[in-house]
Amino acid sequence: MLEEMHVFATIVEQSSLNRASALLNVTQPALSRKISKLEEELGVELFKRVGKRLELTRIGRITYEFALELRKLQLRYLQSVNEFKAARHTLLTIGASLTTLQTTLPDLIQVMSQAAPDLEIKAVTGKTHEIVSLVREQKADLGIVASEIHEASLHCIPLFDDHLQVVVPKNHFIMDKGRAEISILNGMPMILFSKGTWYRILTDELFLTHNLSPDVRMEIDSFEAILRLLHTCRAATLLPKSYMREQMLRDNDLSVLEVDGLEHTKRTTSLIYNRSAELPGSLPLWIEEIKSRFRLAQA
Predict the structure, then answer these.
(1) Within its chain, how far is the Cα of 131 from the centroid?
(2) Which of 30, 156, 186, 274 is least buried, going by the fewest C-beta atoms within 10 A?
(3) 36 phi-psi bin (left φ>0, alpha ψ -120 to 50, beta other)
(4) What does the alpha-carbon distance between residue 93 and residue 79 come to, in Å, rounded to a whole number?
(5) What angle do CA 203, 192, 221 make, to 5 degrees?
(6) What is the pLDDT along the chain (299 residues), one digit of tens a residue?
(7) What CA–CA distance (Å, rounded) separates 299 from 294?
(8) 142-145 and 267-274 as β-strands: parallel, antiparallel, unpaired?
């Protein structure tokens, strides 16, 4: 019936079977058959002939109003279908180094999901130089790295500054000392992240600069695992400030020890993308949303 209603409305609007026939690219006899079929289905007469003119009957006017509503509903529906298909096929690939995967990527994905609920996000991991290569070669739309990247082909947006913090069990003896000098880490039992990431490189540089030799008990690739093992090993750790949450500390019965000198272990976490790449969908607007959210979080 939808097709017949469209034909009927066109005839009314053209006030002529000949003009409607030309507009719809249908022969006049075929057009007459469609209207006859519609009248037969409805059991009413929609037109009456006055000389060579077609005039709507009373039920014909009501049917025309209904046909217009159907047309509007169909247009709205087709627009919704197109919007759904466009959103459904928007895939965003984000590259993140192992440490930013644990510290920054969850917050970023939350921002993106709120801005575009239908966005499909794919995450790939690697070391910082590998993520930079993925973005450079346009195998990733965005990259999250704990560094500022100065490369002509890439646009780098600093999101926030980060530094290391000493985290210990709440009942650790070191907490009795209050604010401590960095030398307190010398010989201290510690659980550290595995070698090769910016975070571990930064940690080793810190030890070398201050001539520190902690007692490294374990090296693990998971911040969460490190936190859970601190009590068991009666050890301390160094973690990025961006990873620490009050709820996380409470859940694991941990505390942050204030240590002089750690504020100098600063790294800038940045968002990078290829300058020449065609950014998918509304990505430029989403990037602005990301920058705004992280600025507010650091304020």
Answers:
(1) 18
(2) 30
(3) alpha
(4) 27
(5) 110
(6) 778 888 888 888 888 888 888 888 888 888 888 888 888 888 999 888 777 778 889 998 999 899 889 888 888 888 777 766 665 556 788 898 877 877 788 877 877 777 667 777 888 988 888 999 999 998 998 898 888 899 999 999 888 888 899 999 988 877 777 788 899 999 999 999 888 777 888 899 999 999 999 999 999 988 889 999 999 999 999 988 888 888 889 999 999 988 888 878 888 889 998 888 766 556 666 677 677 767 655 54
(7) 9
(8) antiparallel
How many angstroms separate the CA atoms of 121 and 108, rounded?
11
Most distant CA atoms of the chain, gap in Å:
108
109-148: b (≥16 Cβ within 10 Å) or e: bebbeebbeebebeeebbebeebbebbbeeebbbbbbbbe
Token representation of residue 239: 């973690």
